[in-house]
Amino acid sequence: MPFPDQESVSTSMNPLMMEELSYNKDSLSNDFKLLYTSLTDEQKRVYNEIFNSVKRKKGGVFFVYGYGEGSRTAHSRFLIPINLTEDSQCQVKGNTDVSELLKKTSLIIWDEAPIIHKHAF
C-alpha cells in the first residue's frame, strides 16, 4: 500500500481544513451546472474573470452582489477582534489550523464586505 503524501497527512490532521473540504462535490457540481446556465452575460463575465484570476493565481479584489455560502463570518474565520482600532490585528498565529487553512485558500468570498469596519481589512 502506498504511503500518503505529506499534504494529505497534514490536511487530515487539521479539523478546519477537513470541514472546509467536506462539501459534497457532486452536488455542488450539479448546482454549478444548473446555475451557470441561468447567468446573464454580465454575470458570466464576472464569474469568468474571478475564476481566471484564481486559476492563474493572479489575485484581485472583486465586489459582487449575492448570497454567501458556507455560513462563516469574517470575524470568526480570520479571528478579527470585535472592537477594532487602527492598531488592531487578527489573532491568527503561525502553524495553527487557521493559518494552514488560509495558506491553502485560493479564493475568499467575503459576504457583506462593504458594511464591515474599515480596520477589519
SSE blueprint:
Layout: H1 6-12, H2 15-20, H3 25-37, H4 41-55, H5 74-78, H6 97-104
Provide the residue-averaged pLDDT.
84
Count of strand segments: 0
Measured on Cα atoms, how large is the radius of gyration?
Answer: 17 Å
Sheet/helix structural class: mainly alpha
Helicity level, as a percent range?
40-55%
Q: What can you tell me about this protein's structure?
A:
With 121 residues, the chain is mostly helical. The model has no long low-confidence stretch (mean pLDDT 84). The N and C termini lie far apart (46 Å). The longest helix is centred in the middle third of the chain and has 15 residues, at 41-55. It is built from six helices and no strands.
From the structure above, extract its key features.
121 residues; 6 helices
In short:
The protein is an all-alpha fold.
